[in-house]
Structures are given as structure tokens and as C-alpha cells.
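Following up on my earlier message about iron/sulfur cluster. Here are the inputs again, as you asked, copied directly from the submission form:
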Amino acid sequence: MPKTITEKILAAHTGRESVVPGELVSVRIDMALANDITAPIAIELFEKAQIPAVFDSERIALVPDHFVPNKDIRSATQVALMRRFAKKYGIKYFFELGEMGIEHVLLPEQGLVLPGDVVIGADSHTCTYGALGAFSTGVGSTDIAAAMITGEVWFRVPESIKFTYHGQLQEWVTGKDLILWTIGDIGVDGATYKAMEFQGPAIETLPMSDRMTMANMAIEAGAKSGIIAPDQVTLDYVSSRATRPFETYLSDPDANYDQEKTYDVSQIEPQVAFPHLPENTRPVSEAGIIPIDQAVIGSCTNGRIEDLRMAARVLKGHTIDKTVRLIVIPATPSIYRQAMNEGLFEVFLDARGIVSPPTCGPCLGGFMGVLGPGERAVSTTNRNFVGRMGHPTSEVYLANPAVAAASAVLGRIGGPEEL
Amino acid sequence: MTLEGTVWKFGDNIDTDVIIPAPYLVSTDSAELGKHCMEGVDPSFSEKVSAGDIIVAGKNFGCGSSREHAPMAIKGAGISCVVAESFARIFFRNAFNMGLAIFEAPGVSDGISAGDRISINQDTGEIIDHTNGKTFSANTIPPFMQGLIEAGGLMAYVLKKRRG
Ligand code: SF4
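Thanks, got it. Here's what our run produced:
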């Protein structure tokens, strides 16, 4: 029977010939991830169960990234718990400050998640690794606690939806715009419980960074996972990083899909998602006059070197509007160093922006740029729910790095061609 | 078993950021999280709610982050169960894993009003609104997940299996 890439990966991890959508299966995992918000609950549950050892100390990653560098005493306490646990059980991949970056950028960069893997993370954006041709999905802390004991997790095998993208991208249109467009089309629950499979000529031309941005936001359509078939771009990305062997899978041409959608990307311009849902998308040219107080460039969606280069290209030779604060957050230490070496910091500082160490920080209203009452931000992050970046009356507009940078200069939401 | 309580109503796409805003995620204590439950949509919710009350909501309840703090906060606030048109995937999973009763039932969003007294038969999935007399039926739960609930959540299930 023809199968999707998702069905093949899940079957391979159950030791069975095949699995079909709707089945509940127990699946062997290649990596389990938790962060400084979700790990403490998993650790408490694990220790209460009085199990002497984790299933595999090299297949658990603990990344304190949300409130780190510790924003207060309580977050320091949560990270201390992770640190102690990592030491006690010999967890190889605990990332201390200085090595720590935003989990979904860090793990692929470090070669810890690979094509053909099954990866679970106690963080909803774990779906990012689908960009590498892996099955990866967000779960809760209890799932991680159980997986640390058994090395397995239970899943309902998802149906897949096929999204095909044709045509040539316009200038300043990125993976962020394609995924915002898609969510605008199908809605925030348009893919609930399903796997979103992104393919087509326009996807094949996308660099890995844009592919990760797309898979990252599959959860914003309610999906269990997002996935892109591995190709030469994937192999070029992983071959120098992989920490272990891996296998690649492809969907059969006549595999079964729950739904199929086709888009002509040449018709898509940079998108902005208006408050308070990622599905409230509009082309940037139809945004109207929306003055902003803050622009944030970073996060697991758009904190990669390619994103920072794009923002710098727009900002070069400009200073931001007097009414705006610009916060740039390279997602990992190596991206931070690379951006510094390429002179991007110079551009950001000349524009009157600031550069933060790697952290989730403002993306979830944690610290390092929380919004006050009624304030508006344009942000390259992935969620614009009520109160997401601060006060319940604040507003978040989601966009790509070029639009965020241009908006900072304009003092209102707008595209780079307006500068 | 039957759950009975007074209804608090919410709309569609109630996300985890409004169920429990991120600044409170520095705690793993359900009672403390419960004090800030639903703060993003109704700042005084936790003061008004009584033990055993029921949340009725629209579609895609619990969308957003994977934080188990969301079902923990709902439990911590004293809510006995959540009834919705549909649930977001990770919230659905978390609720089962940690033993918060949830029911997916078409029609409840329009058919049940705030302040109504409703009861839910956990075995049959029958939901009765005692204020307006309407009835609804909740979608059935797959046997494996029923097993999770019977074992007392995922951890209890895993440990029981491990002991054989
Ligand atoms: S950057 Fe934002 S969305 Fe990504 S993991 Fe951190 S808090 Fe979550």
C-alpha cells in the first residue's frame, strides 16, 4: 500500500511493516526535549516514580531558554532543578548558559535531530524539525516523564494534508509569508490532529532556514506535525552536523491524503497576521496605518542567521523611528557570533536597536521587552494571542524579518520597498 | 460517574496564553496556578468560580503552547471538567495524561448558557442542561485512552505496565 513519509517514519519506529491513520501506536523515540518551563514538571514526575535511570542519557535534551538568563529567583530555581537532574542522571545534552540557545534552532544546529527521526518535545513548536524530514511533535510534560522511563510515546497516526506550492517568490517573500498565508487560508484549527506535508517546486528552492520557519508554525494551524521531504538541501544541512546515523523517507507518489491544497506563490506578498490570531492575515500593502511601539526580530521562527541578514539588509543606512524600540535576538550562541563577525550588530546598533543574548524572552511575554498596556509590537515570532507578549491590552502583529525591520524605521507597519 | 455543576462560558480558540499567562509559569503548583486561571479573558475568574463548576467553550479550546500548566490551572481553580465543541491536540492529550476530564460535544456552545446547571454522565457521555432541558452527547473516547483514565493517568499506566 502506498504511504506518506509520516506513516513510513512512524511504522519504522513501531517495528511494524505499516501503520494507518487513526491507529493508536506506541512509538520508539530518537530524542525527547524539555525546556525550563516544562522540564520541572517532568522531572518531578520522574523522580516521584523512583526509577533509577533514564532510558538513554544521550537521547534527552534539556534546554533552559524561555526565562534564561534567569529573569528572577523562581526561574533560577527551575533551571537549578534541571541542572541538578541532568547531573544526577548523566544527561548529555543539558545546555548551560553560553551554550544555550532557543531549543528549536539549537537542536538542528547541533545535529541532535535528524531526517527520519521521531522527536517529541514538551514544547508546541517541536514540530519545527519536520523541515529535516523528521516526525516531530509537541507533547506535555507528563509524556516526557513517561518517555524518559520507557523511550516510547503513544500517538494516534495522523492523516496527512498535502500543500503544494508552485511559482516564483516575489522579492521579500519568505517561508514565513507562505506559512502565514496558509494559516490564513485554512484557519487556526484547519489542520487539527493532522500532519501538514509541504511540497512543490517553490518549497524545493527554499533554504533550510525558511523550511524550518514553515514547519515551526504548523502548530498554529492546529497540526500535529509539519513535514518536508528530505532533499539535497537537507543533506547539505545535516551531513556535517549529524551526531548519529539517520535514514531518509519519502512519500509514495500515490499516497493517500485527507486533503490537498495548491498555491501559486507568485501571487503572495509579505503577510502580516493581525491580533489576536495567526489566521488574521493580510498582505502588508493592505495593513493600513498601524503605528508601533516595538519591533522584535528573533525566536524559534525567525531568529536564524538568514533572518538577521535580511533584517540588516533592510536597516542598513537607516535609523528606526523615534517612537520605536527595536530588539534583535540571535537564537543561538553560534548565530550570535556569526552575526557579530559579519558586522550585522553594527547595522542594528547604528539603527538604534539593541541586541539581546539568545533567549525566548519577549516572544512569550517573559522578559527582555515585555509590552505595556495598549502597546503594539511587530514581531517575527509565531503567536499573537491576547497578552502573548505582555499586558492583555497590548497587540502583536506577526511578520517576516524584512517587514519587522522596515516597520521599525517607518514607525508603523509597512514593507521594505517603502523605505 | 456523573459530574454536575454550574457553567462558565467561553468562546472559540481559547488559547493557553489566556488560560494561564506565561509570567505564572515559574510555578508547578496547581493551586497557585489556579489563582490565575483564565486571567487573560476574565481577570477575576478564579475569585468567582466555585469547586465543581464546569467550563463550556466553543471550538479549538486550549490551542497554543504545550504547557501542562493550563489543565493544571483549570483543575487548581476547582473546575471539575471542560466541555467544548472541539479541543486543540496537545491540550486534549495533556488533559488525559494528567486526569482532567474533558468532553467534546457538538452543539454545546450554542445550546448551553452561562450559569446553567448541567450534568455529564461519564460512562454514556450524555450531557443534560437542567436549566433549559436540552441534551447533548459527547464523542466516545478510544479504549486506549479510557485505559489511561482508569489507570489514573499516563504515569500510573506506564508504571503499572513496567511492574507487569
Ligand atoms: S521562541 Fe517563542 S515560540 Fe519559540 S520556543 Fe521560545 S517561547 Fe516558544
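One observation from looking it over: Residues 365 and 389 of chain A are 4 Å apart (CA to CA). Hope that helps, and feel free to reply on this thread.
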